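sry for the spam today, last one i promise. struct tokens for design, 146 residues
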């Protein structure tokens, strides 16, 4: 794949602000990446998506939109939610039972970050198996939330 090539595959879904959305997102990612031949990336991508959607449901309080695109050897993902909160990695006590989601994302993703669309909200994006030249998040929400 050349540096300017578009992703071969793309999938999007709108997820309500409900705990069941985490399972729905994991299922979608597992299904799509298997169809794309990206089997080596499935487990890491599912875990990243699980953590991001959990955070959006817990802290965003509104529907979120998930988009993944890529090919057999890479995945680029985005999760948009309309919340104003700033995702950040927090140091946790060894006995804490939560709060490690972004640490997991940080350790698994090739790269990740947060952008703020001019229309509001935030997009948390990540890459897996992606060359540095392809790491550019979108500037707008991936799906329109109505």
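last one done:
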């Amino acid at each position: 794949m050349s540096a300017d090539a578009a992703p071969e595959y793309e999938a999007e879904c709108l997820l309500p602000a409900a705990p069941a959305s985490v399972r729905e997102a994991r299922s979608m990612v597992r299904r799509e990446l298997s169809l794309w031949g990206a089997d080596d990336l499935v487990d890491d991508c599912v875990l990243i998506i699980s953590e991001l959607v959990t955070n959006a449901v817990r802290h965003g309080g509104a529907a979120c939109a998930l988009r993944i695109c890529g090919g057999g050897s890479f995945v680029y993902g985005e999760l948009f939610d309309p919340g104003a909160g700033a995702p950040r990695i927090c140091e946790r006590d060894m006995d804490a039972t939560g709060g490690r989601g972004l640490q997991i994302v940080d350790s698994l993703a090739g790269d990740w970050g947060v952008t703020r669309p001019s229309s509001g909200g935030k997009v948390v994006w990540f890459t897996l198996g992606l060359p540095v030249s392809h790491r550019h998040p979108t500037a707008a929400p991936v799906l329109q939330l109505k």
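The two ends are 36 Å apart (CA to CA). ok im logging off now
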